[in-house]
Amino acid sequence: MLGVIGRLAVVCSLFTTFSFATNIMDARDSRNYKTIPSGKLNWFSGNLTFKNSESHASNGTVYYPSESWKNVCPEGTHLPTIAEWSEIKKDRFMGPRKTPNVKSFAGKTRGYFDKNDSKKKIKNKDVAYFAVDGVENQVVMFDIKRGNVKSVILPPTALVPVRCVSERDLLAEKNVSRDDMTLTDSRDGKKYKVEEKAGKLWMTANLRFSLQSAKQCFLEDTLFCKKHGRFYTYHEAKKACPPGWHLPDDGEWRDYQKESVNWDNLGVGGCRDWDEYCDEATTGHYWSSTSITKNTGRSWEFRRKGKNINRTDESTQKGLYVRCVAGLE
Fold this sequence. Notes:
Elements: H1 14-17, E1 23-26, E2 31-38, E3 41-44, E4 56-58, E5 61-65, H2 66-69, H3 82-92, H4 98-106, E6 113-114, E7 127-131, E8 138-143, E9 148-153, E10 158-160, E11 165-167, H5 170-173, E12 176-177, E13 182-184, E14 191-197, E15 200-203, H6 222-228, H7 234-237, H8 250-258, E16 272-273, E17 276-277, E18 283-287, E19 296-303, E20 308-315, E21 325-327
Antiparallel strand pairs: 1-2, 2-3, 3-11, 4-5, 5-10, 6-10, 7-8, 8-9, 12-13, 13-14, 14-15, 15-21, 16-17, 18-19, 19-20
């Protein structure tokens, strides 16, 4: 149940941790809803406003009876189950900032109405309630003052707001085409094949995004940039990946190697060692985001000829390649 879920720290408020993933249009009234990504779901950032014959509207919020909850969400979305509410609680509403996060999510939502109350007086206006798909009359209660979230049972005549959810398209969010598993870098339109390894998406070619001149290319020849990708200093590498992607850390490179390594696209291109260059035909050198010693970054050297891999700490000024990675969460 929601009341016994373990803690998970939320570092920032909802306004910084929640990024709007996409908009969903309700074809019934052409209303658009912004969504908040959490886990494998996109959550409506505001309450459903579709009005049916059983609903009650008050101060811009629409309240629904339990018999409407199951089927009131727009096509392609659904009413969240108690398990799905539990997941967003763990993701967003635990830890030291739980109170402001709860307030941000609830917005102006407060209390519930009784459909048999002719005066339609709001009840329990210090908390917010949201419908749940599951046990009859079970709802999720947001305690605005204390920042607590738990499941409760309301009277069968209660009317409460609805938040709908939809399944996320995690590949589309990373600009990856599901048809051919190709990433399109939105900054310059360059395309990269990607693969899933160790539960994450990895580029299968070196990044070619230009941060400066031909000095990023092997022998300062732009033909080699097209062939092998571009060299980056450590600090350049940390900011070179497309939005939603990042430079893998040392642990991610370790996980990458637990599965078979495709030597057809690794271990070539060498590196730029100040004014000299590493063996272009048989080695490829790649940055990780990890730094252990000052002015160095941890790197991984793939030696194609002997099919072996070395981990080293290199000067942050050396030019190495970048493989970007993205989580599937």
